[in-house]
UniProtKB/TrEMBL annotation:
Species of origin: Rhizobium changzhiense
Keywords: Glutamine amidotransferase, Signal, Transferase
One of the record's GO cellular component terms: cytoplasm
Protein name: Type 1 glutamine amidotransferase domain-containing protein
PANTHER family membership: DJ-1_PFPI DOMAIN-CONTAINING PROTEIN (PTHR48094:SF22), PROTEIN/NUCLEIC ACID DEGLYCASE DJ-1-RELATED (PTHR48094)
GO terms assigned for molecular function: glyoxalase III activity; transferase activity
Length: 280
């Protein structure tokens, strides 16, 4: 199958060949290839291979169309530590297939990436999309959590009850809908705590995200660095209700109204299944 067939490139040009039964899914990725840590240290990162490509494969196989976007429209980066068969249940062939599919899509190519900006998404019209998905990797903690463009998009999806799915570190992007996302994040980074802001659209929602326990267990990936804060703490203090799996790194998803969240890399297939069910 030609994977590029599933891309909604025509949509980005203002036209669409969307069939009557297919859904149109917007996948939002980070522009960043890094996460700034404490003490001036930097962790090279991006999206997680399986968290992006397992849902992408499921969506394309089901006949849905996909549009890829980042806040600025720049080509995203993959976290090289995620190119590991352990994230594919030990199946190296599945991992290689995802790598090949990613290469064919050209997402990270400087000259042929189909990625568009969130400003272009707004020009096309949010109503054109049936669902939005934000995969993880640490990169969303660098820019998506304070992106005003993403905050506007997610608020529209919330107000219109449209499916909103996020996995692993992806749910940190929900902070972008705070009345003052940058102020909240800055306060959290400097003080380790922040006051909840009235009017947050996800206040009281049940959710999951990469847990504090998992962060502690995965600290070695940061090469001796330390994150400025953990997403579980920030989202909980913002006013959402956290849920986690009984066993760390096992699949766990939470659904609440239009929102679907997955806890960790192992949860990506379950998020994809729930997303597909909502699109039917």
């Amino acid at each position: 199958m030609n994977l590029l067939r599933g891309l909604a490139i025509a949509l980005a040009l203002g036209t669409s060949t969307l069939s009557a039964h297919a859904g149109n899914v917007l996948i939002v990725l980070s522009d960043s290839d890094r996460l700034d840590l404490k003490d001036g240290k930097v962790f090279k990162t991006g999206f997680y291979l399986n968290e992006l490509m397992q849902p992408v494969q499921a969506l394309l196989d089901a006949g849905h169309e996909i549009t890829f976007a980042t806040p600025k429209g720049t080509a995203p980066s993959v976290d090289v530590t995620s190119i590991d068969k352990m994230y594919f249940g030990g199946d190296e062939a599945a991992m290689k297939a995802s790598e090949a599919q990613l290469s064919e899509l050209g997402l990270m190519s400087s000259d042929r990436s189909p990625v568009i900006s969130l400003a272009r998404v707004e020009q096309i019209g949010y109503e054109h999309f049936d669902a939005v998905y934000v995969p993880g990797g640490h990169a969303p903690m660098q820019d998506l959590l304070v992106s005003s463009e993403l905050g506007k998009l997610l608020t529209w999806f919330h107000e219109n009850g449209r499916t909103t799915a996020l996995a692993c570190h992806g749910p940190i992007a929900l902070l972008s809908t705070l009345p003052d996302a940058q102020g909240f994040v800055t306060q959290f980074e400097t003080a380790g705590t922040a006051k909840a802001q009235a009017g947050w659209v996800y206040g009281g929602y049940r959710f999951t995200v990469f847990s504090n326990q998992e962060e502690e267990m995965a600290k070695g990936l940061l090469g001796g660095g330390e994150m400025k804060f953990y997403p579980q703490d920030a989202l909980t203090q913002a006013g959402a209700q956290f849920s986690q799996a009984h066993v760390s790194f096992s699949a766990h998803i939470v659904t609440d109204r239009e929102l679907i969240t997955g806890q960790n890399p192992a949860s990506a297939p379950a998020v994809a299944r729930e997303l597909l069910a909502r699109l039917k």
